[in-house]
Fold:
Amino acid sequence: MLNWKRIVFGVTFLCLLQTGISQNYVLQKLGKAISSPQYDEIAPCVSSDGKTLYFTRIAYPKFEKALVEEGKDLEKTLDEKDYMNRLTEIYSILDGKPVDNPVSSAFNQDIWVAHSISNEFDLLEHPSYPLNNALPNSVSALTANDELIILNQFAPNGGMQKGFSKVSKSDKGEWGFPQAVGIDKYHNSGSDVNLTISRDGKVMVVAMEREDSYGATDLYISYLKNDGSWTYPKNLGPGVNTKHRESAPHLSEDMLSLYYASDRDNPGAGNDIYVQTRLDDKWKQWWTAKRFAAPINSEGEDSHPYFNEATGYLYFTSDRNGTSDIFRIQIATPSVKKVLASSRNFVNLSVGGSIEINKIFFQQSTSNVLAKSNRQLHKLYMLMKSSPALKIRIGGHTDNQGNEKSLIKLSNDRAHAIKQYLVKQKGIDASRIEAYGYGAAQPLNDNSTDELRSQNRRVEIEVVSNDVIVFNGTK
Structure:
């Protein structure tokens, strides 16, 4: 038998919270096939096209019973009574105290998959070994190719260790055996652990507790190395972490928004869901975290946020109705992207096309860019950085209120202010950027009302030349 006292692991525990960014959208609890009234369902992860949902179900009686020790599956070699006794021993060791019933234990966790065939999430799948086994199983994140990153590391001859594994399907649609994800000097002193991986597969944010944590679980950043392993995780610092718990991270596709759960506003009472915007390339500068308002956060435990850009839905876990269930709410307009044969999403930046960014805000009657425009400017920078052949034209426009020469100068100054941001602050080659001021010469409407005039006060970005197609803002 294995010495389970020496085996360490990462169990998905529920971490949730309460109030902040107001919403007017309709909250949906996923149907009973997914959000069952008898069991806890947590940790939703959604494929890039929004058509497949992965989640974890806890304490389900018909769990996957494969339990390998020393190369033998105890489910097949022991009778039911001896098997359950052995599983009880293992769960008790993992929990640090006696477990009475392993079936109803929080360590009984299996991965479930809901596919969209005829209707949304209408086909439910409970994968068998090797994706699931009698030990805790949960999906933490999906890669750009929708490979699964799951909790814990497993060996073919049995046992489990702390960390994460990558799992993919064969050409025949069969799940392969989990392969360990190598993270330099990985260690976690707490039981709460999870991660998210950026869309380009080069950045990982890990939730864990370590000697340099500010309080309980903190968020750490790690980078992909050339050999396929990951760098030693570095604490994201006080801009994100607090003396309270930060957990269950999820990165948006543009890598600028970090969703996570924290109990900072209700210490010891449970978690709420927050979102925070990154302002630099070194992952050190952040806007103040925003806490979502009801109906996203509630008086119960709210956690495991997962935003799907294709549908605009934010998925999350909440126990507001008694048991933990999967909820979703549409917080953004669904994205429109071309899907090629490889099933990967591409954005074609064709010559003459417009690059759509949200409005850039300036101090009134000046070319001083206001801080609330930093996120949009950073998006433009990231696009320029990841597409070295891309050249753009920045056009400044005004309404018709004022002297023509003054309006042309103001619009020109504002266009050049954006160019200077990209060139001087971000290091983009100046030859890749044209900047012009058109004043009131190219209005979108007749300037007859304040609202219409505000629409004419704008900055437009046009593609001048581009030799490549970029993938979600990256090559």
Residues 75 and 83 are 6 Å apart (CA to CA). The chain is about 15% helix and 30% strand. The chain has two domains: 12-63+108-339, 347-465. Residues 3-20, 336-348, 468-475 have pLDDT under 50 and may be disordered.
